[in-house]
Amino acid sequence: MYFESVPIPPISPRSSSPASSATRFKQNPSTEFDNIKFFINPRLKKIGPAMAARSYLYGGVSGGEAESGGSVLLTNKRVHCSSSLNPVDSFFVSRSSPFQGSRSMVSFEDRGNGSGGQFFQSFDHEDNGDDEYDEYFQQPEKKRRLTVDQVRFLEKSFELDNKLEPDRKIQLAKELGLQPRQVAIWFQNRRARWKTKQLEKDYDDLQESYNKLKANYENLVKEKEKLKSKVDELSDKLMIQEKGTSEASSTKSPCEPQLCEPVLEEDLSKNMNPACGPEGDLNVVFERGDSSYVFEQEQSDGSLDEENDNFGKMFLPSMDCYTSPKIENVDPHAVNSYYLGLSGDDQAFGFWSY
DNA sequence: TTGTGTTTTATTGCCTCC
DNA sequence: GGAGGCAATAAAACACAA
């Protein structure tokens, strides 16, 4: 086991200067970055090797795990972290790549001996003077964005397959002049972005469906109101007509054979004719009593029918006050259809078929 | 110029699979 | 147990308004 306490001065990562990083590095001359595997700060938070190296190089610790002014413990415990410090990665950076120009902030190509391990070894305090430290740290690698061409290339590759097999990763890294790790990270982040976009799209689709349904519902409510007012209007007419009829009958002889005769089916079908409409002798129809039998043909199937059913039931109570008690046995379909002068087929209004 | 919000690059820990 | 994926997150880079 290898433990070492490493003080971290209170320096903001953003405002850090290369010199301060170098200073900190020099404060720990015995630090061997090749042995850095695992970091624990005083608050027992873990810091990976790359993060630790980053804190040295750039004056801060990514992830906010290390508290400034605190210290970390170095151990050689192995953690799963494909750190960019891996010297092997630098071999994948092709100097002849057409996509040169973007490197990871922890890419150490063109630095010293060209490998991460050697890069760090070159800072052995015993073998290097202060000037050399400062020379390196005054021009730190910054986090660099990929070039437009690199991104375009990666995007095309992502379109083909958003998963990255090891061979493909290495191939892409070579072609782009990046580290395989960078390619893997790019795909990882790209998948995350894709997923976010997908979620947004799904949300929009759901929202659109909801809006359509809502609009349909509002239309139905409007139509319902329209029909209700029409029913009310016709009910009023019926009441007036009833009044007139009763007044007329009271002035006539008690028994008028034509009116008291039972209504025949043929007569009813005449009354059901839309052309006749509600102006027909409704009293006669309801006097028959078993109207549901008469209007059996009005029955239809499907949810639409159910809608109409409720619709009819909804208006019946308001009609009770206008009609004789016998009407309570009447099929709501029949009542509505008859009152509106519509046959069963005519009930298939356009607005029902959303 | 500076403050602020967004995007991109990168790290970490956890999880699953082999 | 190692490799790779993912969610969460940090921080640099960038965009843009005041």
From TrEMBL:
Task of the protein: Transcription factor.
Family: Belongs to the HD-ZIP homeobox family. Class I subfamily.
Major localization listed first in the record, in broad terms: nucleus
InterPro entries associated with the record: HD (IPR001356), HDZip_class_I_plant (IPR045224), Homeobox_CS (IPR017970), Homeodomain-like_sf (IPR009057), HTH_motif (IPR000047), Leu_zip_homeo (IPR003106)
CDD domains documented for this protein: homeodomain
GO cellular component labels: nucleus
Annotation: DNA-binding region: 139-198
Top-level taxon of the source organism: Eukaryota
Any coiled-coil regions, as ranges: 189-244
Disordered, as annotated region: 1-27
Biased composition (Low complexity): 13-22
GO biological process, one term: positive regulation of DNA-templated transcription
Full protein name: Homeobox-leucine zipper protein
